[in-house]
Amino acid sequence: MAIRVFLLDDHDVVRAGITAMIDAVADLEVVGQARTVAEASSVIAECNPDVAVLDVRLHDGTGIELCRELRTEHPRVATVMLTSFADDQAFVDAADAGASCFVLKQVRGSAVVDAIHRAAHGHHQFDREELNAARERLRVSGTQQIADLTTQERRIFELIGDGLSNREIGEEMFLAEKTVKNYVSKILTKLGHVRRTEVAALAARLAEREGR
Q: Do the Cβ atoms of 122 and 75 come closer than 8 Å?
């Protein structure tokens, strides 16, 4: 029986290239594709894959978010995370989300095929020492970034980590919602993030480490 593979990537050319590479392997078969996180869940439910190959960064979310969803909704589906960036945060988040493998797009096609085979047979790529080293680099980096925030920005950062909306933060700190929005934009810039969800995840991790 061929290993059934689902592919999520928002670049048509990349998706076509990976599909051709996978279909050229005798025991692999691409049974479903999607270009957004929004459509991926329904396609996966329909095509019933053994392995889902998920791009980490997408226009409407991340493959890591979908990986977490699959662990709950479709636990038998193994996941391979595919990314263009050697990113410690993505590496750690993928492991925590339950992914089997983490592969850079720049590697040879045989590495992607090998990752799919390993994932399908229940093997995991994540090495404990590599993960611990990545977590430590993130801790040091996060501490340095947070040090650049003003007292007001640090408090808003913490409230973002608690899951509060801009309006709720404004009510908590007696600030106008527009003022909070401006603060959030500054925080995103200082921390080098483009999504509020990334800042929220960072704040939550630091709060957990500090025991707050």
A: no
Q: Which pair of tokens denotes residue 188?
A: 């995103």
- Cβ atoms within 10 Å of 53's Cβ, excluding its own: 28
Lowest mean pLDDT among 98-102, 108-112, 193-197: 193-197
Rounded to the nearest 5 degrees, what angle is found at the Cα of 55, between the Cα atoms of 32 and 5? 30
Cα distance between residue 68 and residue 27, in whole Å: 27
pLDDT tens by residue, 77-87: 999 999 887 78
pTM, two decimal places: 0.70
Q: Which residues contact 15 (CB under 8 A, 6 or more apart)?
A: 7, 9, 33, 35
All residues at 6 or more sequence positions from 173 whose CB lies less than 8 Å from its CB, including other chains: 152, 155, 156, 159, 180
